Amino acid sequence: MMQTQDIQAIRDIIRRAKRWDAFFGVLGILALMVGVLTFMTLFVDMAIQGMGRIDANFFTNFPSRRAEHAGILSAWVGTLLVMLVTGLAAVPLGVAAGVYLEEYAPKNWLTDVIEINITNLAGVPSIVYGLLALGLFVYQFGFGQSILSAGLTLALLILPVVIVATREAIRAIPQIIREGSYACGATTWQTVKDHILPYSSAGILTGVIIGMARAIGETAPIITIGALTFIAFLPPLPFTGVPPAGLLDWLFAPFTVMPIQMFNWTSRPEAAFQTNAAAAGFILVLMTLAMNGTAIWLRYRLRKNITW
Amino acid sequence: MNNATASNASAHANLAIKAECRNFGFHYGDFQALKDINMPVYDKKVTALIGPSGCGKSTLLRSFNRMHDLYPGNRYQGEIIMQPDNTNLLAQEVDPIEVRMRISMVFQKPNPFPKSIFENVAYSLRVRGMTNKSELEDRVQHSLKGAALWNEVKHRLNDLGANLSGGQQQRLCIARALAADPEIILFDEPTSALDPIATASIEELITELKEKVTILIVTHNMQQAARISDFTAYMYIGELVEFGVTDQVFVKPQKKQTEDYITGRFG
């Protein structure tokens, strides 16, 4: 039978052991705060600085020499169009590569080498992609300093993210589901089309959007391929030109994007332009947050019906 | 072993053989999991594979529908001959998909697809190119009735398969296996994840199914093998120790090893 003093001893041991729990809890909160507070400070500071500048005109005006008339029309339209190209290029390429690696590729040293390469690609500095694109898309393929060149450059940049996200989403599907499909007599493609892609679409979409959210803020590769910093006209809207050749006019139009507009304004001496830069930055962060929010919502929606 | 097969075969000379393992062996990479298996599977009978964990009974079962082809480094030896066409299921030139269209499978853990009840059953038909809606509906209904699930789900065919209970999910998987009108159904410990009531309903179903289809079942549960099977194969460390009529194997096993296992002295 246990004595009262034994129980007391056990309680002391537990109390002493639990101190570490409390210690790590506090340490963890502090570590978390470094990240969260830094972001919040930047965001709030930008919001306070730029908020006064944000009105309808800010979105509908082209850049101007006079800060109070300058807007981000060409920048946000350019960003949306470049992102459209990026998405259209990166999603099919990345998903196809990911599906191939998971479902088709034989497991051998070559696949291992490719895997390591993809992981490394994700770590290549973005300006290197800019240089590659300058040589390849702008000059070699003759796409010029266009929306197409920029979109493809950013697509290359986020391709590893899309591939890795695709593979992870596919790996989350239990093997028994795959076996169930094959046992029904399905081919590999039928299994991919009817099961693998539908069940992994939430994870893939999340990866795509997170990749796009990274691409939307990229400046270096876009400057490298020669985006304009001051542009007072809009590219033609997609698929509105005179068919057939005119349909693709928008792809070859010169453009600017949000981060470049910001960069341009911050390099001006007048304080009013700094305010513009802060306002544009605020909008850019909102765009990113909106994309991440969409990713979370889509993941929730698409996963609701998927249980193993 | 050969003597045992011979005596049983003569006792059942009037039974047709649906499939037969001839000198069958299997390697996972360098590891020989099965060796020299010779065993008939009789048409429209239930054949149970029993034996302790790791004896290779699931490996043998999964060879019948070439499931091992999905993974690298696996190698078959010998033959599994399917009747009436005398096809060697393991031959290089026989497409595993063709084999799986003739032999369907029910797994240990119910694995309905995250789709509707209807689509789960219809999938076996869709991979065979069936697109006609009313034909699909007929076949799905027929299969769900065959799996004794129709009355429970007829008003909610569009619900997710995952919303069913474990036993219902397993019957849904049986309906999926039945839909394609297979010649053999493989059951890999189909009740090991189910409660006793669901187990009883699956066992009853298997007994009904053998009217129409040949059944090969792996089970850990010897009472189950005794209850539902017509023939029993006892396996141990990759070898077939004894094969015979279930009643004989359980009441009067010819090998000491089999007797020890089924009486619970080891295993």
What does this structure look like?
The complex is a heterodimer of chains A (308) and B (267). Chain A is mostly helical. Chain A has a single domain, classed as Orthogonal Bundle (MetI-like fold). Chain A is 73% helix and 0% strand. Chain A is built from eleven helices and no strands. Chain A has helices at residues 4-51, 56-60, 73-104, 109-121, 126-140, 147-171, 175-183, 188-216, 220-225, 258-266, 271-303. In chain A, 35% of the residues are buried. Chain B has one domain: 3-Layer(aba) Sandwich (Rossmann fold), CATH 3.40.50.300. Helix content of chain B is 38%, strand content 25%. Chain B has eleven helices and ten strands. Chain B has helices at residues 2-11, 57-64, 96-102, 117-126, 133-146, 150-153, 166-179, 196-209, 222-228, 246-251, 256-262; strands at 17-28, 31-42, 46-50, 74-82, 87-88, 103-106, 184-188, 214-218, 231-236, 239-245. In chain B, 48% of the residues are buried. Classes of the chains: A mainly alpha (308), B alpha/beta (267). The A-B interface holds A 106-107, 174, 176-187, 190, 194-195, 199, 305-308 and B 65, 67, 70, 72, 97, 100-101, 104-105, 107, 109, 111-114, 123-124, 126-128, 160, 162, 173, 176-177, 180.
Give the SSE layout.
The complex is a heterodimer of chains A (308) and B (267).
Chain A: H1 4-51, H2 56-60, H3 73-104, H4 109-121, H5 126-140, H6 147-171, H7 175-183, H8 188-216, H9 220-225, H10 258-266, H11 271-303
Chain B: H1 2-11, E1 17-28, E2 31-42, E3 46-50, H2 57-64, E4 74-82, E5 87-88, H3 96-102, E6 103-106, H4 117-126, H5 133-146, H6 150-153, H7 166-179, E7 184-188, H8 196-209, E8 214-218, H9 222-228, E9 231-236, E10 239-245, H10 246-251, H11 256-262
Parallel strand pairs in B: 3-8, 3-9, 6-7, 7-8
Antiparallel strand pairs in B: 1-2, 1-4, 4-5, 9-10
